[in-house]
Amino acid sequence: MRIDLHTHSTASDGTDTPAQLVRNAAAAGLDVVALTDHDTTRGYAEAVAALEGLDRGLTLVTGAELSCRLDGVGLHMLAYLFDPDEPELARERELVRDDRVPRAKAMIDKLRALDVPVTWEQVARIAGDGSVGRPHIAEALVELGVVPTVSDAFTQDWLADGGRAYAEKHELDPFDAIRLVKAAGGVTVFAHPAAVKRGQVVPEAAMAALAAAGLDGIEADHMDHDPATRTRLHGIAADLGLLATGSSDYHGSRKTCVLGEFTTDPEIYGEITRRATGAFPVPGAGGRAGA
Fold this sequence. Notes:
Elements: E1 3-7, H1 18-27, E2 32-35, H2 44-51, E3 59-70, E4 73-80, H3 87-98, H4 100-113, H5 120-127, H6 134-143, H7 174-183, E5 187-190, H8 204-212, E6 217-221, H9 227-240, E7 243-246, H10 266-275, E8 282-283
Parallel strand pairs: 1-2, 2-3, 5-6, 6-7
Antiparallel strand pairs: 3-4, 3-8, 4-5
């Protein structure tokens, strides 16, 4: 089985619609794909509906990537198979989403102060119906010729945490995120925990504290982790009794990663599905919900 547990659609900052994402995942030979848009579950219905039209089996795992902050350092928490209607977690996701527009406008103001002629209208056009975020602003900088690629916008010169044009937004405490996701029957995995190219990362001691609070796993195999880092993270996961996942963090054409670039071991996926009680994987025609 080929299992990719971290992808994004136009419901947040990907370029594929949820239906296109499902079709592209099947075409890429995946058996399981997780839809993990930033702080939203809005793409679920379209993605589930798209399973019916596939020529091959594909199982959809519903999830989200939650924006968190610990001691001033941003981090992302992947949440899988939670009840999307659980009110407390839904309320927190809404607070984060509501803060995205004023935060984006604050970053645009900072860029304009740096003589970058970006506008809210340009960023809103790029974001479309998605939850506006830094990747949309980064794409605007590419359009303007300020940086050559979206990734090049995530530096201290521009949009990285603490960068010249960075602005904070409402974010969850990760310990609260773990509690909320578990209360909604879901499973939590710390996304790309050592992605230093994105900015400051939390220390390894924080991973131990999160594990003690109920964190289920860490995303060890990821495009932003070099081979030595991936090996180290697998060791940390083993030491802390955490699940170690692998995922593409696919954003369509917005990033260079491809579906299935990194994958999760079927036994790890099976354990995630066994722990979840809030929702269950959705098999398409011929799809398999468990490992």
